[in-house]
Amino acid sequence: MVSTARAGALRAGPDLDRLEGWIVWSLTGTLATDLSSASGTGLLDLSTGEWSPPSLDLAGLDPAQLPPVLATTDTLGLSAAVARQVGLPVATPVVLGAGDGPLATLGTGALGAGVAALSIGTSGAIRAVVPRPFVDERGSLFCYALTRDRWVIGGAISNGGSVQRWAGEVFGADLADGSARPDDEAVLALAASIPPGSDGLVALPFLMAERAPLWDPALRGAFLGVRDRHTRGHFIRACIEGVAVQLWAILTQLEEAVPVRSIRATGGVFRSPLWRTIVTDALDRPVTVTDGAEGSALGAAALGLLGIGRADSLEDALRLLRPDGEGDQQPTTPDPERVEVYSRLRTRIPALLADYHELADLFAVKTSRRHA
Known about the structure:
- This protein is an alpha/beta fold.
- It has helices spanning 5-9, 14-28, 35-39, 53-59, 80-86, 100-108, 161-171, 184-192, 232-254, 273-283, 295-307, 314-321, 336-358, and strands at 2-3, 33-34, 44-45, 50-51, 69-70, 75-77, 93-95, 115-120, 124-130, 142-147, 150-157, 202-204, 222-224, 262-266, 287-289.
- 39% of the residues lie in helices and 15% in strands.
- It has a six-stranded mixed β-sheet with strand order 10-11-9-8-14-15, sandwiched between helices.
- The relative contact order is 0.13.
């Protein structure tokens, strides 16, 4: 079996979406796209799984310009030319696969009712699986196909683990471990010495143009409530708390479509007990950290097993790859006192953002020929 789902797991944007189609064509000689990739284009009728005539017309496209849409578990045969080059039998099954987000969700095992998937790397996302397409009228949540009867809805933030990395470089430059970068453990130890809520210091962690749920490319980051008692540990912890609160904002919108009782998480930041604790308390849900950071690769393998008939369902495929949830950590449960602290913080954020928008012009970058 060859799975182009792994190509999907490497996607980082539209250019790599096009790369996936090129890989399918290169391996099989067939021009086609998978339902998952197509569902993220804005050109698909989610109810039929076919290209949408009104959308194509609006975009000025002819249906003949687009490849046919196949199921994510459909297989095509490896071409004779490629088979000779790689030493595999001709017509070896090539499973079309799916996009990074749906695969990461599958890789965490967040398939059951009431379970959401959370991933935090440089950026972050919360997703849940639903049996049919869901369209968020506000446009805050995405909806991508995993299979024809499993759809992934959720939202992504641009500012995830990268915010802690930035805070460490700014406030912990002296904590380098012999490399050019500050030691993460030392940086996190500073933050861990500060109480939840950072003694009133609030970080709006928008170092990059933010996506869900704000979708405001002009919004900039800020620290609010600064006092002379605040140390660098406060600033670092406030940054992590700010990320967690933004994830909570997505979770609240996600729950309008599907209730979430627990979360399965993946990502390098969760090696840190501090990150696990802050995220668990801010989201007020038990969080189980799943084994390894390659959630998308695991999801690709599971989808591939289903595609070639080695598994009867996605759940069955995951059990074959990771019997009994092998490698999962024990769930981290919310602490009521810390949950209350973050609840108060969450209620403050909308008002802070409203006031902050009033000051937006102050932060506009302007150039001048004259300098004081």
